[in-house]
């Protein structure tokens, strides 16, 4: 009666593609900042801005994931309560 949702797992290829893509993007941005025709202060500011953007993106992804997982837990608890009520209910019981 209970439909336990399967845990979604990414394939190794998808994980690898995400890591490689992130590394290429970060490397290309770092290369662009190093080759930028500007003084050291501007390049330093750009590097700090990129690092801040990366950490903010990781934090946002974690917050979204945590919120989604919390919603799934609440849904499972509600489903368990409903199944318990249905299991305990006897439609032929006299009122």
TrEMBL record:
Residues 14-66 form the YiaAB two helix domain. It holds the Pfam family YiaAB. Signal peptide: none annotated. The chain crosses the membrane at residues 12-34, 40-61. Keywords: Membrane, Transmembrane, Transmembrane helix. It comes from the Bacteria. InterPro entries: YiaA-like, YiaAB. The keyword Transmembrane helix applies. This is YiaA/YiaB family inner membrane protein. It comes from Streptomyces hirsutus.
């Amino acid at each position: 009666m209970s439909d336990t949702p399967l845990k979604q797992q990414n394939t190794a290829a998808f994980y690898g593609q995400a890591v490689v893509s992130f590394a290429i993007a970060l490397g290309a941005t770092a290369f662009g900042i190093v080759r930028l025709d500007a003084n050291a202060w501007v390049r330093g500011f750009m590097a700090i801005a990129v690092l801040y953007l990366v950490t903010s993106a990781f934090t946002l992804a974690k917050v979204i994931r945590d919120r989604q997982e919390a919603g799934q837990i609440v849904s499972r608890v509600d489903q368990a309560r409903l199944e318990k009520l249905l299991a305990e209910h006897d439609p032929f019981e006299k009122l």
